[in-house]
Amino acid sequence: MKSILAEKHILDLLIFNMINCEHSIAQKCFWIFINLLSSSLCIEIFIKQEDYVAKLMDFVFRETDFSHEALRIFVVITRKENFSFVEKLRNQGIMELFIFVIKHLNETKLLKLALEGLYNIFSLEKEQAENNKNKNFVLKFESLNGENVLIELQHHKNIDVYNLVFMIFDEFFQIDEDY
Question: Which has the closest alpha carbon to 71: 48, 105, 44?
Fold first, then answer.
């Protein structure tokens, strides 16, 4: 299946149609794309393409109806415990995506997905740091002003969001007692 998808450029065609076609066709292509990405075989193809993440992000923010499902796929990828996949996602802008969601989309489900994705990424980094392969995901996050975005969420009304923010700060950042 993997060779057929790569050889026939199926993912390329789906992304092209998601971005360039009218809403109903884009929606159908998106659902096919998401179902294919649920398979580990397709995730590998997806990650290898430098512009797939950017194109999917572009589609998600143009068609906000799909934000939840697309974010869910990114979180699933970060759970795969494959450091090289997550590193490629980081290089393609996954942290910027999660920060954007946290800052601008005030829907609890989306916030929780973005926070879970960050937690997964930071957990992988922590695991790699113990093996002397630290790639500085936390430093990248801080350089994007992500820490301040999380600070704003410390007073979120949803207890699950609050707990995720607390876990991230507690496990991966130096906690300042003033917060």
Answer: 105
Q: What is the pLDDT of residues 61-99, one digit of tens each?
A: 666 666 677 777 777 777 766 677 777 777 777 888 888
Domain ranges, ordered by start, for the chain: 51-172
- Rounded to two decimals, what is the model's pTM? 0.75
Q: Domain spanning 51-172: which superfamily? A: Leucine-rich Repeat Variant (1.25.10.10)
78 closest CA partner among 131, 114, 30, 31? 114
**Cα–Cα distance, 153 to 22 (Å, whole number):** 36
pLDDT in tens, 91-109: 777 888 888 888 887 788 8
The three-class DSSP label of residue 154 is coil
Angle, helices 94-104 vs 146-153, to 10°: value is: 30
